[in-house]
Amino acid sequence: MNMPRRSAFTLVELLVVIAIIGVLVSLLLPAVQAAREAARRTSCTNNMKQIGLGLQMYHDVFKKLPAGWRGCDPSTGKAHWFGVPGWAWSSSILPYLEESAVYDGMIHFECPITDPVNQHALTASIGTYRCPSDVGEATFSMAGGGPSVSSDVSFPIQTATSNYIGMFGTLEFHHVCDPSSPNCNGCQGDGTFSLNRPCRFADLLDGLSNTMIVGERHSVLAYSTWVGVVTGGQHGVARVAGVATYPPNSTDTPAHYFHNFSSLHPAGTNFLLADGSVHMITETIDRELFHALSTRAGHEVVKDF
After folding, report:
1. Bridge-partner residues for 173, per DSSP?
2. Per residue in 214-241, pLDDT tens?
3. pLDDT tens-digit series, residues 71-80
4. How do strand 164-169 and strand 241-243 relate by DSSP bridges?
5. For residue 79, what are the β-bridge partners?
6. How many CB atoms lie within 10 A of CB 148?
7. 254 lies in a domain?
8. Total number of domains in the chain
9. Mean pLDDT, the chain, integer
10. Do residues 302 and 210 touch, judged by C-beta distance below 8 A?
């Protein structure tokens, strides 16, 4: 009696099927990754729109934007770029980002950032200040090495991470903030956020829709924070504000990594304009146009970007 023969894959057929599956997976993975990044980019854009709304609401209440950061030397009472208390613009708008628990329950604005009473605030992670595409930790260890007005600060200090920094403008920090520099002007940038100086929307003479006020910075090259400038902290001022000397993601000058804007989005870096809109700027943007968008009163004629 003849038994029926079973049909089966040969080894060659099996290898072909595996190869086809491998090709399909290799085609599918980039599409999945692109879809995930598109979702992360949208979430990042929404974060920046929330920040823009928070700044608009702050301006409605106080008739001005918050200062970039606040600092003075307690021994002289004069403004100091690494002074105390150090709180940044991003800490001032927390109530308008539905973070009143941090603003009212953790922060003592009358005390320096590093005062023990502010320990919980110093490491509080704020979801709105984190880009989903960023791979950095929720907190980072800040080393010392910067100018200081206090001998009571011990480094390293654990600090909350942020991916959104204020626009200082096109002037380099060390040129206009360092008292030893011949060009020192009291740490006043030509952008929107500077030391101890609140800007009004009326001061943005280039127009709200032509002035970038907040931009992204990723954590691979430089960690930033929403908290403020820690006196004596390494690159302390650059942790809360950025300089638009170079286009986004530029690595031409390693010394300026901490001053630049950047992101891990493949398409570019998100920037918030004063009118509340968010635009993605590529690293190939014309430098003059980038500078024009970064200043508040340069009187440049800005075309579509």
Report:
1. none
2. 999 999 988 999 999 999 999 999 999 9
3. 999 999 999 9
4. parallel
5. 72
6. 20
7. yes
8. 1
9. 91
10. yes
